[in-house]
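Hi F.,

I've been meaning to write this up properly since the lab meeting, where we talked about keeping a consistent format for the predictions we share between groups. The idea is simple: the sequence comes first, exactly as it goes in, then the structure tokens exactly as they come out, then a line or two of notes. No screenshots and no reformatting. I'm using this chain as the first example so we have something concrete to point to.
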Amino acid sequence: RIMLDHGLLDDPDKPYKSTWKDFLRSHWESLAACDFFAVEAWGLKGLTRYFVFFVIDLSTRRVQIAGIHADPCETQMIQWARNLTDSEEGFLKGKRFLIHDRDPLFTTKFRDTLKAAGVRCLKMPKQSPNLNAYAESFVRTIKRECIDKMIFFGERQIRHVISEYIEHYNQERPHKGLEYRRPVEPQESPPEEGKIACRERLGGLLKS
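Output, unedited:
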């Protein structure tokens, strides 16, 4: 009682609240996160900013680009949500929760579309990017390793470059958080003997 009065012990009658770390650990296999990042490209009308919408599987770190558009709207967000929750090839198949920030593009209809497919949206509090750390880490990675080193001309080049990087990120790039494994490991083991080959993408910008 004396230790409780002096604040040296937790109140045994205080209701337990799960921490964010505990929540992630207990729902690891059923969690995904999403976010946007911007890419600027030169075109006939000058410099245009395109927004890239992506989703990341937290357990495997696998990433999929859900859509790229210069001015995304609610209609496109709803369609992207339907694509992600497709019963056969949807990236969110088997997932129960989707973490996202407070971007106004994540509208009520967008969340309802996901909810109808069994995916519950978790909106983060204000000024808390650390709660979506895996998505934020991917944005920093793709910008540092690829986007910041290139000048883009048109939407077509943006789509090509990002597509190449996603294949590199998912199938070739080792991840420290996965004990230096890749998100998508090949079905067959590599040969133990033979010459070491280097695979290059985007003119040698990406190597494996």
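Notes:
The chain has a mean pLDDT of 91.
Helices lie at 2-5, 20-26, 74-84, 108-116, 133-145, 155-171.

If this format works for you, I'll send the rest the same way.

G.
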